[in-house]
# Entry
Amino acid sequence: MNKILKKTSGLSVLIVFILLLVTACVDQEFDIPEPANIPVGEINTIADLRQLHIDNNTLPVKFTEDVSVFGVITMDGNSGNIYRTAFLQDETAAVSLRLMSPGGLYEGDSVRINLKGTRLGAYENMLQIDSVHVGNNVVKLGTQKIVEPELTDINTLMTNPSMQGKLIRLEGVEFHQNELGQTLADSAKLLSMNRILRDCTGNEIIVRTSGYARFANQTVPAGNGSIVAILARFRDDRQLFIRHMDEVEMDGERCPEPGEGMEIITISQIRELQAQGASSIPANKRLEGVVISDLEYDNHPGQNLFLMDEDGDGIALRFANFHDFNLGDNLRVLVGSLPIERYAGLLQVNNIPLGNGYVMGQAEVPAPTPTTLLNLTNNFEDFESTLVYIDNVVIPPTATFEGNISISDGTGTVVLRTYDWASFAEAPVTEGVYNMVAIASYFNGVQLQLRSLNDLEYVGEYDPGQADLITLANLRNLFEDGATTAPANKSIEGIIISDIDNDNITARNAYIQDETGGIALRFSANSSYKLGDKVRISVGNIELSEFRGLLQINNIPNGNAQLLSSGNTIEPVETTIQNLKNNMQTFESTLVRIVDATITGSSTFNGNTTITDSSGSIVMFTRSDASFASSAVPSGAVTITAIVTVFDVAQIAIRNLNDID
# Structure
């Protein structure tokens, strides 16, 4: 066995020696093959082709005759940064070649291309010769021809169409601060990436790198220097393709930090400007602060963020495009001459170019300010766009966080807003008491925005307790005297006089009546209380307001209501229409009976009809969703039982057809 191994080993050495000898004799200078018999035909420059594209109204041109173009390949697919593509350049211009199959053309090849059978057109605004077959269309005339890159600047690349497809060189450039520490592309997931390259005056251009590029996992250079690349276009974007990493030399000192020569403006100064009527920020100003919104969980529009400065003030920023600024970023924003405005009541700096934002590092997120919902509402200007902390907040029963939830803390109520695209929007809600951190925002009223569910700390189940009762008549009198919320630690008891089963009322609304009067209820979510249900509702510190003239207890957390019994009745008060209208404070949201009345104005109940008795007339409204909306109205005199309501003017609404006798 050992002899065999020794013989085999000796033979291997001999084979290796022979291979080395043969390799040493091979001529590394390849001869150019004899040109294929491909006709020349008419000769065009690349500039001629570009003009042909323009003359043809940028419509595709199919070549059916022999037309040749000469040039040098300035980039091929060898690096993996482009695929089935090459770039051709002559002394007049450059163009992209779309190949029938990868390979066959290499950087430095001097070629003649017969365009017969190819198509000249623009793919997403990038001019290209499509369907190039290397064997049938291309004649190689030489190799290793060097094309010197054209020294230029970013502004020229962005504005001069004749630069498209050319090999160029930029000097005094660097990657944007926000790109540092990242790789050029994602080689693990094979995802292409755009990285922003800028000069020291703020001009920017995209560097596009394929996830298949050999250098995809290279870290973005951190210094300033030069880059050699091919200029391409995708729609309205100009973008650079790197050929080799040795053509990216960026180890010099970076440009001065953007905005260093600008004066800092504080958020309080911006607020004062807007309060004085200014519509924009003075020129040459920069804003600095810490991002307090959390992009990871998406509970805000992708163009927006909230920023707090070192004085503890906050403001909403709206960028011109989706940004990638994260919670805790120490952000510098060049805000000079940008508009300031209130959108639905929320102050924001608007239409900020993405390039105006610079991450200067990471910072500690400011601690939230403890407050109550009542204090937040009454002093919103002190809290707007900042982090706040509220303890013992009641979140009522509701299916998910998506949309608006009316929350309370014993001092007041506020809307908790969750956008439908937030990562936690569909998370189920556990009703109960929470300690909460949130951003104080505004949309036609004060609202709070969670950054994530980590902002909630569950304290325990909610027990509304047995608050002191207050009559509905007393609530009405308090509102007449100027109250905007019900007194603290108060409850109401009464019987539901509206009929949810017949749909002449929305599921969030109801009418309740006690021995002193009635009032409209508006819950924070759909309720299921039925006609005849006796309920007890904790209303302390909940909003009293009028909607189109109708007094209502607004945004009642559903968990504040408790069913006491069912099947109860309220005897309607018999009245005339004129008496009803003369005494709306007494009759509003109560059950009445009108005798010897006629119904006119429509053949069905749907919409507005007119009810008339001997004293006068009043509108009766029926929702189109009501179960009886399409039923025919009776002719002749009838007795009507109805709820007295208001929609700009007094009107009545029946609950079901049993209310017509």
